[in-house]
Amino acid sequence: MIPYAKMTADELSAIKNDLKQTFSIYAEKGKKLIMTRGIPSEDQLALCDGLLTCLSNEDYKTANGNDCRNYGGIDGIPEMKIIFADLLDVTPEEVIVFGNSSLALMFDIVSANMSHGTIDGKPWGTQGKIKFLCPSPGYDRHFTICNYFDIEMITVPIYPTGPDMDKIENMISNDPMIKGIWCVPKFSNPTGIVYSDETIKRFANLKPAASDFRIFWDNAYFIHDLNKTKTNISDIIHLCETSGNPNMVYVFSSFSKISFAGASVACVAASVSNCNYIRQHLSARTIGPDKLNQLRHVRFFENADGVLALMEKHAEILRPKFKLVSDTFRDELGELEIAQWTTPQGGYFISFDSLNGCAKRIVELCAKAGVALTPAGATFPNGKDPLDCNIRIAPTYPPLTELKEALEIFCTAVKLASLEKLSGETFPV
Amino acid sequence: MIPYAKMTADELSAIKNDLKQTFSIYAEKGKKLIMTRGIPSEDQLALCDGLLTCLSNEDYKTANGNDCRNYGGIDGIPEMKIIFADLLDVTPEEVIVFGNSSLALMFDIVSANMSHGTIDGKPWGTQGKIKFLCPSPGYDRHFTICNYFDIEMITVPIYPTGPDMDKIENMISNDPMIKGIWCVPKFSNPTGIVYSDETIKRFANLKPAASDFRIFWDNAYFIHDLNKTKTNISDIIHLCETSGNPNMVYVFSSFSKISFAGASVACVAASVSNCNYIRQHLSARTIGPDKLNQLRHVRFFENADGVLALMEKHAEILRPKFKLVSDTFRDELGELEIAQWTTPQGGYFISFDSLNGCAKRIVELCAKAGVALTPAGATFPNGKDPLDCNIRIAPTYPPLTELKEALEIFCTAVKLASLEKLSGETFPV
Description:
Oligomer: homodimer
Largest sheet of chain A: 8 strands, mixed
């Protein structure tokens, strides 16, 4: 392979004609291949089928005798708090287990801070147009929450060691209207990068101009390693405590990609003061979360070790998929100099950068050939990728054979879009 | 028995001495009897233990093939929508099944209306100090939501046919800052009264000064009849449609007192336009509700008839408890002219009115003797009963023998507090 940019017009034209033909064959097949979101596959879900049957009509109480079939308790059953605490390396008093969605917890906390303020300030909603920093490419659902509450989003670049800390420190210490930042510190969505110890230390030592500034630390992939060698990140909660900023961070996590997506358990971990405050807000909204589903998780996993053991099985299923993406990209695109991509050691995504101005076109071409991808731009605030180059690859859901087909189509689309870009001539589809 | 008010000072003094002695004996026993909230009893919960085991590792999909173990679907599985729709006499398109708590749905909709407005107006939060009408005595959790969002509450009297409609019509048609009203139309919390057809018709024909006025119709006890003869109330959604006010009402309900309290399924029913709008808001917050728990309910109950059949069993358990309360009050307090109470045909509560100025004292005395009651005043906005006379009796949770003890203590406390009131002399406890 030689780089497209170094080929002659005739060579490019020949390749383009080949690609057009290949593409037409794909399009005619009318496949439906879905790679839109980070969804566990059926064989991953089957790992936890024991959850469906692990309670019985003699087993519905916590160790302290609470009947999980009845009302009572706003912040989770003790056993489930312990499992999250052990996995996140915090104390159970620093954990609230609530509901089936960590995203909902993030939304509820932003909402509460908008209407009532944090423990350190007036309601965000009464302070004028507030801002959140958004390391990007990032998670579109975070940006949706900002959009919902009309919070201005400021894009911050993200590097292999984490977001651009120079920029972040500078902006946060000078602008009191910056109230938050979205972080996915481990196997970041979609780049898969891991924040370095240095980055996390700098986060914990931020000196925000706003006393009510908060880090939304979405540790969604906290134990989602692909390899036997595990990646550990620094404990932000206790670093913030040490730095004299104990209430600056909320940590979120869930079992959405451990047990059943959408039918699992979610948590927020934070300082005891933050937890007390969050509990108050949750109590105005509801009597409490579904404790039976928490108990199911406790019975099925038993403890943190049980969870980690299951994660090995997830990794076995996911490893070949991530390898297939990596191998296919290398073989198909490796030396063409039309793309770059990440090779994460965990998480659910691979971040793919095409030539500038090609991402939307690639997603469009893929759609025509039956491959559904995350919309181009979704990984940036307001759905607008300034360079139109980033695409989030979500390889987890399709079986390997389908993933292979999808990747072939994807690579063909990448090449076609790149050739269109280089030649200035669009291929009608 | 002759009324206390017609006794001589000596007679009253003798009775008081007897009561003091009785009371001291109770207090010494140090019982712990709980009648604070409308909580199902253990034998009621056991009716649904089949829910704990009704799914299997071969049964986790909806009829249309959706895997309930995975992401997808914001508004509930089709089968569960149909069950709610059949029970509420609406169409599945008018139903959103979401989460385990109808209270949370009410909170989320008030919250969304505060920050974004209804489909018929600007955000409530930007319109100045808005108001809700609160028929009282009512449900304290409704008032908590108003308090949370700093919404002014206006107390409206409630009669055996429903709230004071003359007052409501007058206020709502003249004051555009009135944006909502809380209603529990069937077996109202705590009075147990049922809104008459005439009342509901007047609700549907309200002519609010505010285009974005909404009725929060909390139909929590919609099929919670105690007797074989069922009480049916008019269908507010379609009456509103007929009156040209299709978006004026949100109907809420749940299985909290049908299956497992806190681990059941909740819904909101409304016009299709309202449902579309609610779906949008829910989608910003989360990927979706726990579909597996909905599927459990579908498998266990099968259909609306299955639910109604189970409600007969609940009624069998609850009937003797409500009868015991009614009989005890009649026998102990019947002719003393120191109290009035309701005799509901369904629901979870009995509303008790003491002599004015005695409710707090009765609750205090009960606490000293080991009986925990809902705080006096809780049934009014801001926890303030202007006459200090209303107490909510929640007889469902204790077994009959414990309920009997609790009622004896309660009646003793009522008599003591009344004698204190009549004599102006307080008994030290």
